[in-house]
Amino acid sequence: MRILLVEPENNAAAYLRKGLMENGFAVDVARHTNDAMDLAGQTNYDLLVYDGATRPPGLPVFRGAARQTPVLFLTLPDGDQTRKPLAFSDLLTRVRSMLHWGPGGVEEILEIAGLRVDLVRHRATRDGIRLDLTPKEYLLLSLLMRKSGEVLSRALIADQVWDINFESNTNFVDVHIRRLRSKVDDPFSKKLIHTVRGTGYVLEDRG
User: Fold this and answer.
1) The domain 109-203 is classified under which CATH number: 3.40.50.620, 3.40.50.450, 1.10.10.10, 1.10.8.60?
2) From edge to edge, which strands make up the β-sheet containing 152-153?
3) Over the stretch 179-194, which tens digit does the pLDDT of each residue have?
4) Which class in CATH covers the domain with range 2-105?
């Protein structure tokens, strides 16, 4: 799931982004409300997280740009600076709760050929068997599932999962795909993650 974090402080933004990404979320950061509105107008986010001393001006416009995406505010009421900062574990609980009860209150489940990914509870199973995935493996699988049937380049995968530029002379992405396959495909007769030579990877049921 993709989150837009609005955080004016560089250190806080880096800390929150790192923590959320380690828990399997894709995170974009905006330093100011105007930047956030631009990003929200270009990308479909599952949640906006806003941190700052006050709530942003023009809230209706902000929500409009976000296409009704739920917004989690970490601001202190009426500028009250005496309240303790929110612990990251509490933030993570609130994020998962809002994603669970998002617009319409419907859980988001991805499923194909017995492979099931619960994007809210961060669980993946195949034929009812729980898959023991690392946070990055979960994020990689979620990306492939969201784009099932679409061939994804190594550069796109590296950007979306690790937020890095892919170096064409490395096998970084291939190694991680291989590890994911060992858990998602190897124990099962039907293979779902396929290599498209010279292009990248695709997850699909080929019968």
Assistant:
1) 1.10.10.10
2) 152-153, 200-203, 193-196
3) 999 999 999 999 999 9
4) alpha beta
pLDDT tens per residue across span 46-86: 888 888 655 555 454 455 555 567 778 876 544 444 445 56
Alpha helices in the chain (DSSP H): 10-22, 33-42, 59-65, 88-100, 135-146, 154-157, 172-184
| Domain ranges for the chain | 2-105, 109-203
Q: Where are the alpha helices (DSSP H) in 23-80?
A: 33-42, 59-65
Where b means 16+ CB within 10 Å and e means fewer, 158-190 reads bebbbeeebeeeeeebeebbeebbebbbeeeee
Statement: the pTM of the whole predicted model exceeds 0.85: no
Give CA angle at 25 (1, 132), nearest 5°: 100
Q: Which whole-number Å values give the CA distances from 205 to 33, 72, 115, 142, 143, in the listed order? A: 42, 37, 10, 16, 16
Please report the DSSP string for 134-149 in residue order.
-HHHHHHHHHHHHTTT
Find out whether 36 and 28 touch, Cβ atoms under 8 Å: no
Q: Which residues contact 59 (CB under 8 A, 6 or more apart)?
A: none
